[in-house]
Each structure stands twice: as C-alpha cells, then as structure tokens.
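Translate sequence into structure tokens.
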Amino acid sequence: MNTETKNCQNCKQNFSIDADDLSFYERMKVPAPTFCPECRLIRRLARRNERTFHSRKCDKCGKQTIAIFSEDSGVSVYCSPCWWADDWDGMDYGVDFDPSRPVLTQINDLFHRVPQMNLNGLYQTKVNSEYTHMASWLKDCYMVTYSDYCENVIYGSFVNHTKDSIDNLMGEKLELCYETTNCSQCYRTVFSIDCESCTDVWFSKNCSGCTNCFGCVNLKNKSYHIWNVAYTKEEYEKKLKELYPTTPADIHAVQEKALSLWQKFPQKYMHGWRNVGSTGDYLNDTKNAKNCFVGFNIEDCRYCSFITGKMTDTYDFINFGQGSSLMYEIMQGGDQCQNLRFSQFVITNCRDVDYSFYCIGCQDIFGCVGLKKRRYCIFNKQYEKEEYFKLREKLITHMNEMPYVDSQGLTYRYGEFFPIETSAFSYNETSAQEFFPLTREEALTKGYTWREQDKRNYKVTIESKDLPKNIVDVPESIVDEVIGCAHQGICGEQCASAYKIVPAELQFYKRMNLPIPELCPNCRHAQRIQYRNPMKLWHRSCMCKEGSHGHASACPNEFETSYAPERPEIIYCESCYQKEVL
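Result follows.
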C-alpha cells in the first residue's frame, strides 16, 4: 500500500495516511478518515468533561447530586446508585430505525432520552468518595478525576495508587505529595515536576532517585543538594530551615528562582522511560506507539492518549484501555474490550460495538445507549442475529447516502466520530479547552457551544489576601469560611471565584507546614497544566553543541518532540541527555 495525502475537511490542512494506517483501517473494516489527526483528537476531547460539575437532582430518586451534565444540556441523569441498579433497563427506550433521518441524529436523540450516570466510575468501589469522576477504587477522596486506587487524595487528576496527597497532576504511587506534575514513586515531594523515586524533594525538576533536595534540576541519585549545590547533611538541614517556605510569598519567590534555574539545564526531548520505536510524550514501557501522549504499556498504537494498562492495536483513542485491542475513535473504553468503533464509555468485555454510549459488557450493538450485557441491539432494540447484521449493513449504507451535515457544512459518513456540535458539553467545559483553547468568539464561530459561569449563591466571608500567612496561625474554623480566590474570576482559567477548605485538606497543610492556598482549585489546576507539554509534535534537532558529548560537531540526532521550537528550553536527544545527567 502507498502513502495517501488527504485534505482535512475541517481545518483544510493536508495530512498523510501511511501503509500501516491503511492496514489498520482495513482490519477494522472502516474507511480512511476525512479529518486530520489533530482535528480528530479535538473532536474526541470535546466530549471529555473531566472537571466541570453541576448541581442537579437525580431524575430517578430525586436526591440532590452533582453531575457532569448541566440541567440545560437536555440530558437525563441518574445518580450513580440509581444508574447501576437493576430496576431499570435501557432497552425500555428502544426505537426503530427511521430511514428519513441521518443515523447520527437518531443516536443523538436516543442519548438525550436514556438516563446517563451523573459521574463516571464504578461507584461500588468508592468509599466516602462521592465527588470523584472517571475514577474507581477510591477511599476518602475528594474532587479527584481520572484516577484509580487512591486514598485520602484531594484535587488530583490522573493520579493512581496514591495516598495522602493534594493538588497533583499525572502522578503514580505518590504519598504526602503536593503540587506536583508528572511525578511517580515519590514521597514528600512538593512543588516539583517530572521527578521519579524521590523523597523529601522540593521545587525540583527532572530528578530521579534523589532525597533531601531543594530547588534542583537534572540530578540522579543525589542527596542534600540545594540549587544543585552539594551540602553535608548537617549543612543541608540548617540551610533548609532558612529556606523552608511557610507563606505564599515565600513559595512564589522560591518558584521564580527555581524556574530560572531549570531553564539553564537541558531537557530530554520526550518525557518517559523504556520506550521502543515510539513517538509522543509522557510515555512509559511502550513499543511502536506513534503520536501517543500520556500512557503506559502500549504496543502498536497510534494517536492514543491517557492510557492505563496494557493496550494494543488501537488508533484514535482517549481514556483507559486496560487489556483491550482493536479500538478506533473511542472516547473512554477498556477492560478486556475488542472491536470498538466510534463510541464513548464502552467498558468491560464489550465486543463489536459501533456508535454507542455508556454500554457495559455488550456485544454486537450499533447506536445504543446505556445498555448492560446485551447483544444484537440497534437503537436499544433487540434483534435476531441474522436480522441484526442485515440492519447494521443497512444503517452503514444509509450513513453514506444520507450523512449527518453539521452547521459548518462538514459531512459525517460511516467512519467519522460524532460532531462536536452534538456534544452534551460546551467546548469550554471539556478537555479540548485545556489542550486546544479557544476564545468564546472562536468557539461560537466554529458552531460549538460555550457556557458562561453559573451564578454562585454563596457569599465570600474572607478574601484570600486576608488569610493568615502561616499555617500555625490558621484556626480550625477556617473550614467554615468561604474564601475569595485571589484571581477574582477574571483570569480566564474558569476561576470559581471562591472556595472552601475541607477538614482533611487543612490537616494536610498543618502536617506539611504549608500555607492555605490563595487560589481556588480551578486556578490551581490551571497553574499546574502550564507545566504539561501539549499534545503536539514538532520535528527538531538535538541542541547539543560540538565537542560536548563525544561528537566533534553538533549532535546530528533528530526527533519528534512536544517542545515547540520557540520555547526557551534547551532540548537534547536521549543519548546526549543521559550523558549530561549521568
């Protein structure tokens, strides 16, 4: 097969489809895409609402709950206990195929009729962790998203096997960690980035196997270092008492100095370890994973992101993936699944699924919503095996002959994921806004919806600037206060304007001798994601100069990297970076 060049019908840019891509599409029995990889990624991310919650009542039991779907989304919502209960059946909402209307329109209508779970996750595995989303196997967790196997964790995103930690992004096996991004197997690691197997490390970056380090960068198996300078144990402990930041002003000052130091040291072109023949970023233990971001144990995959657990032979995928293969254009799926296409939240032994939502343990279904352990269903209606396959082919033909056409004139035949304009979420509620931000005007011009901040009915009782600067002066009654965020809602970071401190959070700050934060959780999250590289790649050359690491001239190595050329970091290939650090 030869490489094909296509013009994306959305952004109008050319993109390539190579022989491996065509082979995969043939295996999946789907046509080649008409959207480029980036536009396909944005299209999936626009259905991923990770952190925007709304207060509403369960449409079944009437209890007040929080949900990712707002009241005005038109989506029916059940609280988790009601959704997982056996006393209702998605088959009760089944309808016949209407040949006078586009298939995607009919599926979208069904999605709005069938009750959706308020928050994703196996609620049966959560103990005292009601306010968590896309998460399971939690105990005593609060406002944790896309995370599993955590205990006493507050405000975490994509943190796994973690305990007693607050405000962490992309973490694995953390304990007593605070304000970290992309750290793993760390203990008492604070305000640090890209660190592994570290203990008692503060304001550091790219450190591995380090203990008792402060404001360091690119250290390996070092102890008692401050600003990359070695001290004796006694000298370090004395110096640390002088430097230990106990007020917000102290923290800001140390952060600025650390950032300045970090910029002077080279960075590896890619975050990750033990990757073979792979491109992307934030990857571990992968083989032939191309254009993939944030994941581990991936093989023979392309355009996949946020993967946890072993996943193989999959393209255009976001979220989960454990033990699954042969998935294409999926937004959240996994746990022993196979042959999934153009679907969202299809998990646990699903097979041969097309254009479906929130289905568990189903096989041979097309255009279904909210089904559990069903087979041979179309639009939530049961068919005999032969009749099912006959109607399935009829629907595919109909999608090609009467495609969905969006408000911008883009066509969606069989083989394309759902249009962004049919998402139940506004663009700025989703992960698309985090990775590919738009202004309100840009989003509306593209035909997407935009949600203004809900009006808050609370009254601020204390401004963050008036908080005690040192945690030792903070009274227990702070948990009863409504604190005004320092950004005052004008930062463009979906500021909540105000926030509260929960009791477990206060105890953590006291234990770690850290001040009460001055920003609301949304703004703190926005600050952390600035340290995470984008889901984009640029072709660049190693910046190692002649004579540095055994090469007479400048390093000849080239690579794909998520560091854009205009960024200030010094970017090295893996060989030069390892020589520099070791």
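Note: The chain has a mean pLDDT of 95.
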